[in-house]
Amino acid sequence: MCPSQPNCAERRRIIPVVATALSLTHLGSLMRGVRSVDEVGADERAASLAKRSIKKASKLWALDLAVRCMDLTTLEGSDTPGKVTALCAKGIRPKPGDATIPSVAAICVYPARVADAVAHLSGSNVRVASVATAFPSGQSFPSIKIAETEEAVRAGAHEIDMVIDRGAFLSGDYQRVYDEVVAVKEACGTAHLKVILETGELGTYDAVRRASILAMAAGADFIKTSTGKVQPAATLPVSLVMMEAIRDFVRETGRPVGFKAAGGIRTSKQAIAYLVVLYETLGSGWMTPDLFRLGASTLLNDVLMQIDKERTGVYQSGDYFTID
């Protein structure tokens, strides 16, 4: 997948295909080599792509894909086994009585609720995702972050959503951030690792691009915008910057990395806009739950209402759908 450019082999030596311990010198070279982002260009391109019009058949396909790529999420202190059970039922059969609506990709919960989700998703193709590493702040000891990850995986989590140490990143301690991602990836075993950048706290598009490259070089299977606990959360321009970082990383290493947008995505119109940006930036190969996710707690019902509207021509009331 590496383009035929004379310096491609050299770049392969800078960005590792599989995470290995980078020396401080090599990590510094990696971060200095990350190019700057044209902020005005990113804003304008994201705004332009968001205006794309999609016809009926394509819109229905996009809405179906949005459901299949959704991580249905509950991350509240008030989460109970009963709430997780109801969410799992919703994820398996988003609209009871309509088997044409696909299941979501995953149910995302806190580590203490993983066993509940595993029990109720048994026999389905819905995966269990767990946040970890002192979510959402990331402010804890590395040993505790590793232990939490290992416990979540032992409880049955198929995917781990970790948060980077933004304090370390913003202070320029890239080695600490890199080493933590490597260690958490190892603790995941066969579980997939999504690395949350919390872009709303990084400040600039340049910082978002650097954090994206750093996370991918350390072994992330996905890079994810936000925890959903900080504003701004996911935005189209920031997502575009992250997708372009993935595109460049894949060209240089040949290793595909997934993208997850999370936080503040509440309408089907927003979901479709992310799919348009994804298609135009990374291509049709990323239009799959294996490489794209939408993290959402309130998006699903709006997508279901839009599917019914496209099929029948009539807007439906939210009263006809189960509460997320």
Q: Mind explaining what this structure looks like?
A:
The chain is α/β, with parallel strands linked by helices and 324 residues long. The protein has a single domain (8-320), classed as TIM Barrel (Alpha-Beta Barrel), CATH 3.20.20.70. It contains 13 helices and eight strands. The protein has helices at residues 8-14, 24-32, 39-50, 56-68, 81-92, 114-121, 142-154, 166-170, 174-188, 205-217, 236-253, 268-282, 300-312; strands at residues 70-73, 106-109, 127-132, 159-163, 192-196, 222-224, 258-262, 292-296. 46% of the residues are buried.
Write the layout of secondary structure elements.
Blueprint: H1 8-14, H2 24-32, H3 39-50, H4 56-68, E1 70-73, H5 81-92, E2 106-109, H6 114-121, E3 127-132, H7 142-154, E4 159-163, H8 166-170, H9 174-188, E5 192-196, H10 205-217, E6 222-224, H11 236-253, E7 258-262, H12 268-282, E8 292-296, H13 300-312
Parallel strand pairs: 1-2, 1-8, 2-3, 3-4, 4-5, 5-6, 6-7, 7-8
What is the domain total for the residues? 1
Radius of gyration: 19 Å
CATH secondary-structure class: Alpha Beta
CATH homologous superfamily caption:
Aldolase class I
What is the averaged pLDDT score? 91
Number of helices: 13
